[in-house]
Predict the structure.
Amino acid sequence: MTAPEFALRTDGVGKRYRKGWALRDCTLDLPAGGVIALVGPNGAGKTTLLRLVVGLLAPSTGTVEVLGHDVTVSTPQTLARVGFLAQDHPLYKRFTVAEMLRFGRACNLRFDQGLAERRLAKLGIPLDRRAGTLSGGQQAQVALALALAKRPDLLVLDEPVASLDPLARHEFLQVLMGAVAEGGVTVLFSSHVVHELERVCDHLIVLNDGRVTLTGDIDTLLAEHRLLVGPRTAADLGRAGTVVEAVHSDRHTTLLVRDGGLPAAPGWQARPVALEDLVLAYLRRPSEPSAAVTSGVAE
Amino acid sequence: MTWLIWRQHRTEVCVLGLLVGLFGIALLVLGTQAQDLFPGGPARCAGEAGLDEGCVASFRRLDEEYGYVENLLAAFYLVPVLVGAFLGAPLLARELEDGTWQLAWTQAVPRMRWLAAKLAALAGVTVTLTGMFTAVLTWFRQPFDAWEGRFQYDAFDLEGLVPVAYALFAFGAATAAGAILRRSLPAFGVAFGAFLAARMSVGLLARPAYATPLTTMEPVGAGGAKDGVGADWTIEHGYADATGRRLSSAEYYELEDAADRAGANLNQFLHARGVQEFGVYHPADRFWTFQLIEASLFVAVAAVLVGVVVWRVRRRMI
């Protein structure tokens, strides 16, 4: 039996720009298969991390390994296995859609032209229109069709739906999830929108202020965390396991805890936590070194 | 890749090709008419032979009828620069402006191969277009060169190897500026400015020093000053006393005043005092040596600039 392939492994990855560190101490192990969401506020370093993953940038520290290859040593073979859809889905604006497909064919080892044409035909996007004259949603679809026609093993998308209206967003995600369902491809995408993640994602990375604050399998993360609600108190927080966040209202205290049991004190109740609340709690936490909490990957 | 490069840059290539083509046709027409003024061809009138009666008449008509074209063309040393900068500026800057670098470098063509193909193709177009431009211009200037030599700024900068080297310099500068500034238009401007600065200092300071100039020194003749027209490149000219010490302009004007006061003919006055006339010059046959030196200089800088681009792309600093 072969060891389970990792889609992405990073070890102590940091990236420094002239202004300072955009990403620090990023260590990730993500299994192949499924959908991985990278969540964080604007400026958290999501784009930097994704550009490192697809080899557009070189890390200042650490190593990035994608599908078993160091990404800074790119060959046609390794490049062919990774598809990338950059933020704002850039296309050559003066190319027609057909020319964009020809570009894909000319620059790739394998390129499923038929697949791309079928997808675009289904969406009613004419091949003879210039890319620049298409709507934002259509441009995103063309970019996605290009990336999927590479038949990549890892598809990386940077804020793929951020600039789309709700209808285009829905259509885009539908096409993307359809492609995932057809099998074979691991999807890593970034988003600053937290809701709806639960429905489409298997794996979660929370990035805040250049550091990974939470990563793991979503089901495992949800099982590990719970909300404890009880009478208002400022003490005793240590007893309830790792307290991620404590919120005090007039009469109640709500604790988000990890691996914690119910406090012995009377009047406490345990509740499951919603993914959105979990992510928001981790985003609100001040980021500090070694705050990263890992879970779910180890077998 | 070939198709992609053509598709991305065909507008610039076609516009420049059309302009160079139109320019070439215009010059061929004018040049044929101008060369018709010289029954035995303009080369026959070069040098000492140019002093015979027929040639002098031809040169006079050339100056009267086509002198304006020559003056107009003096500014055309900037055309190769425009060609190079126009092709180099968008090479990286347009991809960076539009975000398409992220598209281009995540296909299965490694970025260094992509860059090498683009640089080779566009530098090739730059050399081809400016080479054609220079060939036509050099041909057109034949009669003028027969008369004035090829060392004046309006000949040296427009003929031979130098214009192509200028174009490659501008191409390298525009590409490097585009990689750093990430904008096509500012990159174009920077390349143009860098060329003007480089060309100015090279033309005024470096070029006269490519080789040690020769000096002539001869007594002022009683009859009059020697006619200075020739194909040599005179870079300094003046008067010296009998011992060969060069006179400052103040000393020369004193002599002139003294001649005036004495009511004597200036030349005879100078001749009587043993004053000598000197010229510092580069002989005309140094043309190709100088062309080679200046071209190497600009091509070397272009190579360094392209090296900067390669290094930045390789290090994934873009």
